[in-house]
Amino acid sequence: MRFRWAARTHTGRVRGNNEDALWPRPGSGETNEILLVAVADGMGGAAGGEIASKTAIDTASAVGGSAAIRVQAANLAVLDEASRRPRLTGMGTTLTLAIIDPNGTVDIGHVGDSRAYLRRDGDLRKVTSDHSYIGEMMAAGRLTPEEAKNHPYRSVVTRAVGLESSVEVDTTELELQAGDRLLLCSDGLSSMVDDGAIAEILDGRDDPAEAARALVEAANAAGGDDNITVVIVDADDE
User: Fold this and answer.
1) How far apart are CA 136 and CA 166, in angstroms?
2) Which residues contact 231 (CB under 8 A, 6 or more apart)?
3) Taking the complete model, does pTM exceed 0.85, yes or no?
4) Overall CATH class of domain 2-236
5) Cα separation of 120 and 207, whole Å?
6) Residue 157 pLDDT more than 90?
7) DSSP alpha helices (H): ranges in 95-206?
């Protein structure tokens, strides 16, 4: 199986700095080897958020092992960084990563409210759960999507990388098929563009780089309230 990928990030229209980080670095390419993709959305103030997300991505992309091991390593690295710089105490980050093997298996590790989606045969499926106040309220049936849009706690994350010595990592395994499209994104996309519109954009552009650009543009057109980061991977037969 061969993969075509594209990665893109944007500050948005409101924030003065970008606290998101991603892997691979912004750009596009293709490979028939194991591919790691990841998105992190930092928190803890401007400097703290940027450092937390960058530290998590740098660590997760450098260490070996499963998705869960990489997330745990990132968690310890962010903690260590904060311990050496007291002004950064309390910083943290979301982290959603996928290790994609040419045999089609995908190992996903996830903490926070960034997301992974799978687009297959006209269906867009969210394969991660949001670790956020809003996400948990919606999962419990206590909040509707309409109520969630303007809820005062919509940015509150209930689980993050870098806050404690150990973090609970959600893991998911997928089997890709030729024609599948995998999307990882920060909530700067998912909070501004609903799933139906995301699916329409993904379906309307075969080139992953064009699809990534269109998703960022859609989030900015909707207000661009937060930093926006997307990574798209298309699976093709060799």
Assistant:
1) 21
2) 5, 6, 7, 8, 22, 23, 24, 37, 38, 39, 183, 184, 185, 212
3) yes
4) alpha beta
5) 16
6) no
7) 133-139, 145-149, 187-190, 195-203
